[in-house]
Specification:
Elements: E1 7-8, E2 10-11, E3 16-17, E4 26-27, E5 34-37, E6 47-48, E7 52-53, H1 54-66, H2 72-86, E8 104-107
Antiparallel strand pairs: 1-4, 2-3, 5-8, 6-7
Helix pairs in contact: 1-2
Length: 123
């Protein structure tokens, strides 16, 4: 077992580090990480040989449609829904036919995360 000593955080609203902000604070060292897995541990992740994995197909679809107007957890929930509802395996091997998949998300975020439109890229 470990004890988390924390890390100094930045106060981005004031443009100051915690050490120079009015109220100093620390956050856990593992804070503000987001892990998105194509499936829970111990399960298979399916892939189409031409179109790629179901997970990446869903991320591409959802982020293209909603990427700049929804918060990241809303986006990833829609990715989960897309993978769960729109995909089902079809194989010559009956043991692998009719199978489903659900992505797994682990959020250690402490704030909402939104993506903005990149003004330097073309549509």
């Amino acid at each position: 077992m470990q004890l988390d000593e924390g890390a100094n955080a930045s106060d981005t609203k004031r443009g100051k580090t915690a050490a120079t902000a009015d109220t100093a604070y620390k956050i856990p060292t593992e804070a503000d990480f987001l892990y998105a897995f194509s499936c829970p541990p111990g399960y298979f992740s399916f892939r189409n040989g031409k179109q790629g994995s179901w997970f990446i197909q869903a991320i591409t679809k959802v982020f293209k449609k909603h990427g700049t107007n929804l918060e990241i957890m809303q986006l990833l929930t829609r990715v989960n829904q897309t993978v769960a509802m729109e995909f089902e395996s079809n194989s010559q091997n009956k043991d692998y036919t009719g199978k489903k998949q659900i992505p797994a998300i682990v959020s250690l975020l402490t704030k909402d995360l939104y993506f903005t439109r990149n003004r330097w890229t073309e549509d």
